[in-house]
Amino acid sequence: MGLKKLYGVIGDPIAHSLSPAMHNEELEKLGIDAYYHPFHVKGKDLPKAIEGMKVLGVEGFNITIPHKTDVMPLLDEVDPLAKRIGAVNTVVSNNGKYIGYNTDGQGFIDAVKEEWEVFPASGRTLIIGAGGAARAIYYTLISSGLTQVDICNRTLSRAEELIGSHQTNADSQALTLKEAESELGRYSLLIQTTSIGMGDSEGMSPIMLQNMQQNCFVADIIYTPWKTAFLEQAAAGGAKIQNGIGMLVHQGALAFEKWTGISPDTDRMKKTVMERLGGITC
Ligand code: NAP
Question: Which parts of 69-103 fold into alpha helices (H)?
Fold first, then answer.
């Protein structure tokens, strides 16, 4: 019998992470002799932690806040899309070499496709926010062939930088939050990626949606609370809505597949996550 394989997630904090439950359930259900462990690693210890993972033969791991960028120079290779995004969330061991990937953007796209069969529909896409998650989603959408993807952000210069740093033929525009509110009728897909709506800002929304198209698809990548004020507004306006659980599950499923070569059951992963979040069912 071979050694049990070890996977995991590195972050600070890490105790709240839903990934161990999601991955361990799948490893067990699929009969894979492996275990996924949460590792609490502070920034100053990251180089030693990566070296230690390698020496101990950890087969693959996820990287979460705040290490997604700092881990990049510590890896043997970084995939071109992750390089462009400037962040790695998944590391795979390939003959002892650690290769970094970013599955956040594709995880988001896979989640939307599951709920919105017409994706990518005609019409423009608007990303609200220009932080790390927005970067992953923007670059992956553009790399997958979408051309009309605009970004609005509280700090306009960050949206401009994000668009400007990606040399493509994409027809993207940077907008202020106010401009986006008045231009909403142009968009068939809205993607909320700011942290507004969770924690201290629960009940708040980064923009008002009065001008939204009625048949719009509206995604919020937050999943606690289950339905943000932004999604409440969108649903009241007649839109089809989706929260951040789908992205969480699908970015994890893509990592799982890279490590094991096996596609996990994303419905079961979703169920595991929802149970951990308090037994909410769809
Ligand atoms: P980040 O890099 O810190 O970016 C935060 C974004 O929120 C920026 O665009 C920022 O605008 C905006 N923002 C913050 N406070 C604001 C305010 N008071 N008013 C307006 N805008 C404000 O964070 P991130 O890593 O992108 O994460 C963003 C959210 O996505 C978090 O809630 C995180 O939990 C969630 N997330 C979910 C998943 C998933 O799998 N579902 C994955 C990754 C992240 P400025 O540029 O103006 O500061």
Answer: 80-85
State how far the Cα of 137 lies from the Cα of 241, in Å rounded to an integer: 17
Residue 80's Cβ-count burial label (10 Å; 0-12, 13-18, 19+) is exposed
**Distance, CA of 225 to CA of 208 (rounded, Å):** 18
Distance 116 CA to ligand 1 centre (A): 24
Q: What's the distance, CA 253 to chain centroid?
A: 12
Kindly report the protein residue whose alpha carbon is nearest to atom 27 of ligand 1. 133
> Is 99 in contact with 60 (CB distance < 8 Å)?
no
**ω into residue 264 within 30 of 0, thus cis?**
no
Residue 10 forms beta bridges with which residues? 39, 63
Pocket of ligand 1 (CB under 6 A): 104, 129-134, 153-155, 158, 193-196, 198, 206, 221-223, 244, 247-248, 251
**Per-residue burial over 152-176, b = 16 or more CB atoms within 10 Å of its CB, e = otherwise:** bbeebebbbbbbeebeeebebbbbe
The per-residue pLDDT for range 162-175, each reduced to its tens digit, is 999 876 667 899 99
State whether residue 188 is helix, strand or coil.
Answer: strand
Nearest CA to ligand 1 atom 46: 155
What is the model's pLDDT at position 1? 65
User: Rounded mean pLDDT of 14-30?
Assistant: 96
What sign has the CA pseudo-torsion 129, 134, 135, 137?
negative
For the CA atoms of 228, 251, 189, 270, the dihedral, rounded to the nearest 10 degrees, stands at -50
CA distances from 16 to 120, 167, 270 (A): 33, 37, 16
Give the up-direction half-sphere exposure of residue 75: CA atoms within 13 A in the CB hemisphere.
27
| Sequence letter at residue 279 | G
| Distance in angstroms (rounded) separating the CA atoms of residues 47 and 98 | 13
How far apart, in whole angstroms, are the C-alpha atoms of residue 216 and residue 199? 27
